[in-house]
Amino acid sequence: MNLKPKTTLTESEVQAGLKLVRVEGLTTEAMTTLIGGAFLVALALLLGANNFQIGLLAALPTLTNVFQLLSVWLVRRYNNRRAISVVCSLLGRLPLVIVGILPFFTEGSIQLVIFFLFFYYLFSSIAGPSWNAWMKDLVPEAQLGSFFSRRSGSMQILNVILSLILAFVIDYVKDHYPQYELTTYSVMFIIAGISGLSGALFLLSRTPEPQSILAKENIFTLLKRPLKDVNFRKLLVFNSAWVFALNIAIPFFTVYMLRELKLEMTYVIALTVISQLCSIFTIRMWGTFSDRYSNKTILAIAAPLYILCIIGWCFVGIYTKFTPNLILLVILHIGAGIATAGINLSLTNIGLKLAPKEHAIVYLSTKNIITAIFSAVAPIIGGLLADFFGKRSLVINAHWDSPSYDKVVYLLKLHDMNFLFLIGAALAFISLELLVRVKEVGEVEKNTVVRIMRSSIKNNLKDYFLIGNLITWHEHLFGFFKKRTPDHSNSQKS
């Protein structure tokens, strides 16, 4: 297995490499689908995990990102990003097989799951920066948006199909053979590990790498470079505030549906599939507008829509009837799917775009490490807050009382995790103001892009005409507060 980089790559080598990257993405997606999302939460609840442990599980992927410093050191030491990515991927995916085998020899333990998943996320964090810097040099810059949008679209299609199959299997086993429910999750972990190991061994190892040049500086001097870059520093501030706000609430959406609403896994996965399908149908549109205009502008459009969806979660469960809750959940997942496609694509691309080619791995590692701290702390705080609000509630209702009719209409009912959703939405709303300060090359005025997107959506999907108004709601609201705030400086002068 030859993992040495090449000085230059031919066009045919680049195209062959891009095909391997797309296929490898499918094996990785199969792995993450089998062990992540609702399935990991369901397994944790089955093993008796509390809110803090669920928050810790959600924090692990980003908590381990602090070890990306090792990736920078390894790349400087060996200057071989492909070898680092392949070896660390193999080391990280082996623990998944171990987690799957454990229940056959010992009783299920949430502590053991957390312990081995730590190593999975640890080595993934080390492999990540070298892979990102490798892809930055391999994928032509003009194709970044379109390539990764197509790759993400294929991965999401696989996620949809696999998730639905797994959900039906789990619910069937739970209803007919409950004694084998834990065994089912064990088999899923084993298959996930094998899929991930195969992708790294047979696909990632064959993807060509163009030789990189990294400045021979002290590692801490290198890490200071992105922090001295004023524009990149502004991106770090926004990204950190944004992920902190979201991760207070998002990890507990699935917990809320499974534990509080008592939804079956099939319903939870079906809702996830709806969200994924909306992402699939819109990600190419986001990718096209990202390449044509700017990632920052796409963020300014997609982020407010996602905030509206988080606020909507505060109203889930107000009424005990199944149908109204399900309809609201469908609407929220549709909006979240559309917004998430644009947000994830733009956050990835803007980081790649603002990072200088010769220092890409340093910039990206610094970004991931700093945002990881905020992203990891948030769900842990969210778990503690969920316990705190578990014994508290806030109810706002309208009561109509007459001689012939008496009716109470719940307007808002916050309890337990609903408080987290409101707090997360408020913090995300505030963080959007930090995005304004970031400058991106080729940036186009947001109003121009909104006008073009409205026209495009109207021509292709007329049913989405409301998006044009939804994407500017936060600016109108900020403008309202600014108008209501008295200008003390002028009053003092007068």
From TrEMBL:
The lineage of its organism: Bacteria, Pseudomonadati, Bacteroidota, Chitinophagia, Chitinophagales. It comes from the Bacteria. This is MFS transporter. InterPro entries: MFS, MFS_trans_sf, Sugar_transport-like. It comes from Terrimonas ginsenosidimutans. Keywords: Membrane, Transmembrane, Transmembrane helix. The chain crosses the membrane at residues 30-48, 54-75, 87-106, 112-134, 155-173, 185-204, 235-259, 265-286, 298-320, 326-347, 368-386, 417-436. Signal peptide: none annotated.
